[in-house]
Amino acid sequence: MSDFSMELNEDQLQVLRWVHDFAENVVRPAAHEWDEREETPWPIIEEAARIGLYSFDFVANCFADPTGLLFPLVNEELAWGDAGIALALLGSTLGVAGIVAAGTPEQVAEWAPRCFGHVGGIQLTALCVSEVDAGPDLGGMRTRAEYDAASDTWTLNGTKTWVTNGGIADIHLVAASAESDLDLGVGGQAFFIVPPKTPGLAMGRKFQKMGMRASHTAEVVLHDVTVPGRCLLGGKDRLDERIARAREVTDGNSSATTAAFEATRPAVAAQAVGIARAAYEYALDYAKQRKTFGRPIIERQAVAFKLADMRTRIDASRLLYMRAASMVMSGTALTAAEGSMAKLFAGETAVWVSEQAIQILGACGYSREYPVERWHRDSKAYTIFEGTSETQRLVIARAISGVDVQ
User: Fold this and answer.
1) DSSP string, 267-311
2) Helices within 3-55 (DSSP H only)
3) b (16+ CB within 10 A) / e for 250-273
4) What is the dihedral of CA 131, 334, 86, 191, to 10 degrees?
5) Looking at the domain that runs over 256-401, which CATH code has it been given?
6) What percent of the chain is helix, strand and coil (3-state, nearest 5)?
7) Catalytic residues
8) Sign of the torsion formed by the C-alpha atoms of 92, 93, 96 and 98
């Protein structure tokens, strides 16, 4: 295992310059429009596909980075441009992460490239995990998967909520519990791929959100959705082994679902850092230009100290997500829930920093003519989705204490 380092090599820097250029010149100028429209920004996705940014090849190259840092850093740059558009571009990657975390090499080779499609034939993918009655309690999931051995098929029934690209995606990756093993909690869960145009899958209501409006979020309803056995990620033998271990209470906290979250939390934290960085930079420039009583407000301690704290928390958040990403790539066990620490701290930092940016801009910060109010609205999602701040604290508390904190 190589030592953790924040020093980026020239290949990584070149990719980040390319992504930043796209974020600055394509994403950010369109951010206000798509926030107002509350629609999937298809023209931007098409442009990203044209240059190779929205593609499996690009994501695979990021995932293959031996340091584990490149993909989260790309997430930060895109979210710096606009978090809603970034999630529209990155939403399919959630599905790829699930496939890579839970699938066999053959399944990864078959399905991961299809998550994006190709230029002229773009496809979207949706990761379907959350449920209304379960929330952060993954063990309380009630979407069911019933196996028919005679036909080697699985039938899915249930409703998923708060799904990025839900219902409009071509491929849906659905977390479900084996029919007879609901009492096993996460030990009886698995991911199932629902291919394009599979009967029985439909979009429920589309959510009208406070922020992240350029990212489509909706319910996904599954009614007798039948998929072939090869669509069970990892295969039935692996699921049977996991269920057997869960019955022995030796691996009750392990599931494909938790593995997927462990892999994605550093990238989610990085998106929060991107929002915070955008708000900080804007507030810093504003403070240098805005004058009161004949002096720039940056010269006032009340403002300068805010900016000092903003920058400190942003850099600390980046260090946390880079450490977690490096540990995930190296296979090091996240013994103290480092991924949850990164997501918790970065999410709350984004909310705090964007709020301070509004305060520095004063009335202008409260106006929709300036982007800081949008960044503040967007930031709040990062204390909620992929595990609330309270959930992250629970994970961390259990990890550091060895106690089943409730």
Assistant:
1) HHHHHHHHHHHHHHHHHHHHHHH-EETTEEGGGSHHHHHHHHHHH
2) 10-22, 28-37, 42-51
3) ebbeebbbebbbbbbbbbbbbbbb
4) -40
5) 1.20.140.10
6) 60, 15, 25
7) 386
8) negative
Residue in this structure with the two tokens 């409009």, named with its chain if needed: 168
- The pTM assigned to this predicted structure is 0.91
Rounded to 5°, the CA angle 153-159-165 comes to 95
What are the residues whose beta carbons fall under 8 Å from the beta carbon of 191, sequence distance 6 or more?
A: 98, 99, 102, 103, 173, 174, 175, 176, 232, 233, 234, 256, 257, 260
- In this structure, whether the domain defined by 125-247 belongs to CATH 2.40.110.10 is answered with yes
Residue ranges covered by each domain of the chain: 10-122, 125-247, 256-401
Tell me, what's the pLDDT at 255? 53
Angle (CA) 301-79-345 rounded to 5° is: 60
Residue with tokens 């584990």: 68
Query: What is each CA distance from 316 to 5, 269, 346, 378, in whole angstroms?
Result: 15, 12, 8, 20
Render pLDDT for 293-351 as a digit per residue (tens, 0 to 9).
Answer: 999 999 999 999 999 999 999 999 999 999 999 988 887 765 668 999 999 999 999 99
C-alpha angle 253/258/261, rounded to 5°? 155
- What does the alpha-carbon distance between residue 280 and residue 148 come to, in Å, rounded to a whole number? 55
Pick the CATH number of 10-122 from 3.30.230.10, 2.60.40.1730, 2.170.130.30, 1.10.540.10: 1.10.540.10
Residue 398, token pair as written in the block: 């259990």
> Interhelix angle for 70-81 vs 56-64, to 10°?
130
Compute how many other C-beta atoms are within 10 angstroms of the C-beta atom of residue 134.
Answer: 16
How many CB atoms neighbour CB 345 within 10 A?
21
Tokens 């010269």 label which residue? Answer: 299
Q: Token pair for residue 263? A: 């892999």
Q: For the chain, which ranges sit under pLDDT 70?
A: 1-5, 134-139, 179-187, 249-263, 333-336
